């Protein structure tokens, strides 16, 4: 084991203090933004419990509407991130939040399947580029050996959003049951869309554009930060040109890995309230509370996997194992006899798949930098968005045709297992590979 000198220990302590300050200055507003984004993305799963009956939508209509959100992602991820690279994170992330808040609120007025599809598609267009944009932004502030923890903390917001959206949606739909000429699902979209508009203002006021123009860092700290991030990037093999990234096999392997993970995630989360109701829980409030448990597990999984992968300087096997565990959780939701075991399967699948997501993002920095990184991150998320598009729609079709989602879940579990093979094809050489 290498013995560190006193000067090295002092320097490490100063670096730890610096990055702790960065975390406290940057993460809170980005974290809250992602919580709000996740709630607005998945609250349709709770609206479904009453919305389908009121509007006479079939399960296929719901499945397509839920998933078409990701078509907007697929088409606009790369353009969005290129614009962010050009104009800066603060104005572009603020624009993203404002537009998705407005569209989320307007979803309360849908009356036909086509209006539902359009609203969900535009919500995906509005939110496109948010997560990869934030990941790219954080890569300008944190070197590779610290990104696993930071991105895990950020993506834990998805788990917190999942924890909050269940009880909050259950309460809204119970308390505002057809009051003031609005249905309870309309109140849901209204009250959960407004916070995005409020957080957008906070984002505009508080988020710094780059390490060089912040007042709460000294000139010495700015130089040290630029040096640490720059040195970490120079020591990693990567592609810098956009064309090279588009033809980089490792980037596509990461994209396919995240596609498999997203299939597992969105095959479950848009249907979790329905799975819980079918297990015998009738109260909307109780469905909301129970649906929070998978996200509690996801938060724990993300934090543990993030720290473990940073400590062991290893990502591939962490991701591969969670893909297998998540697939087994999906299988449990279909083959188990007891409702408690089915709900346990949902918890295992959601925790494993969401828990591995930050590690995929942390690995992406191994292969690209600069403007190409903005493109590559968007490419990965765009390909992965297919999982969100296909998963819910396939579940809806299976439900309409067979009366059960079993066949769709088993097929998605098999595809999710392939994520472990994709990630293990990535090179094992180099730090954090």
Automatic annotation (TrEMBL):
PROSITE patterns, per database record: MFS (PS50850)
InterPro entries: MFS, MFS_dom, MFS_trans_sf
Domain Major facilitator superfamily (MFS) profile: residue ranges: 26-431
CDD domains noted in UniProt: MFS_ExuT_GudP_like
Alphabetical keyword list: Membrane, Transmembrane, Transmembrane helix, Transport
Annotated transmembrane regions: 21-39, 59-80, 92-110, 116-138, 150-173, 185-207, 251-272, 284-305, 317-335, 341-361, 373-395, 407-428
Subcellular location: Membrane
Domain of life: Bacteria
Membrane topology, record value: Multi-pass membrane protein
Keyword Cell wall biogenesis/degradation among UniProt keywords: no
Family matches, as SUPFAM superfamilies: MFS general substrate transporter (SSF103473)
The protein's name in its UniProt record: Sugar phosphate permease
Biological source species: Caballeronia udeis
Lineage: Bacteria, Pseudomonadati, Pseudomonadota, Betaproteobacteria, Burkholderiales
């Amino acid at each position: 084991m290498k013995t560190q000198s006193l000067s090295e220990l002092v320097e490490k302590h100063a670096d730890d203090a610096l990055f702790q300050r960065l975390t406290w200055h940057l993460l809170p507003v980005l974290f809250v933004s992602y919580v709000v984004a996740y709630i607005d993305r998945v609250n349709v799963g709770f609206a479904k419990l009453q919305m389908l009956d009121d509007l006479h939508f079939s399960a296929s209509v719901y499945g397509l509407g839920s998933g078409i959100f990701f078509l907007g992602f697929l088409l606009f991820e790369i353009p969005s991130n290129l614009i962010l690279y050009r104009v800066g994170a603060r104005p572009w992330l603020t624009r993203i939040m404002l537009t998705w808040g407005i569209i989320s609120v307007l979803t309360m007025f849908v009356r036909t399947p086509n209006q539902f599809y359009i609203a969900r598609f535009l919500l995906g267009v509005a939110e496109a580029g948010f997560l990869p944009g934030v990941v790219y932004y954080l890569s300008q502030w944190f070197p590779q050996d610290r990104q696993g923890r930071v991105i895990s903390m950020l993506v834990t917001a998805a788990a917190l959003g999942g924890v909050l959206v269940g009880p909050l949606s259950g309460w809204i739909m119970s308390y505002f049951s057809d009051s003031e000429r609005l249905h309870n699902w309309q109140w849901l979209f209204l009250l959960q869309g407004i916070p995005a508009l409020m957080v957008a203002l906070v984002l505009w006021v508080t988020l710094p554009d780059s390490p060089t123009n912040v007042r709460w860092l000294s000139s010495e700290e700015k130089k040290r930060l630029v040096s640490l991030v720059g040195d970490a990037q120079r020591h990693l093999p990567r592609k810098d040109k956009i064309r090279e990234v588009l033809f980089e096999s490792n980037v596509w392997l990461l994209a396919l890995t995240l596609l498999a993970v997203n299939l597992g995630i969105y095959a479950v989360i848009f249907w979790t309230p329905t799975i819980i109701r079918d297990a015998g829980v009738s109260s909307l409030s109780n469905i909301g509370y129970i649906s929070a448990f998978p996200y509690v597990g996801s938060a724990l999984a993300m934090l543990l996997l993030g720290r473990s992968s940073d400590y062991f300087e290893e990502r591939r096997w962490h991701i591969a194992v969670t893909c297998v565990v998540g697939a087994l959780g999906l299988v449990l939701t279909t083959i188990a006899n007891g409702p408690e075991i089915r709900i346990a399967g949902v918890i295992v699948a959601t925790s494993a798949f969401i828990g591995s997501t930050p590690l995929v993002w942390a690995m992406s920095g191994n292969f690209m930098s600069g403007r190409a990184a903005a493109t590559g991150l968007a490419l990965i998320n765009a390909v992965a968005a297919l999982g969100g598009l296909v998963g819910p729609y396939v579940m809806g079709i299976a439900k309409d045709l067979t009366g059960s989602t079993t066949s769709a879940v088993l097929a998605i579990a098999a595809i999710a297992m392939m994520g472990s093979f994709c990630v293990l094809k990535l090179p094992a050489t180099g730090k954090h590979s």
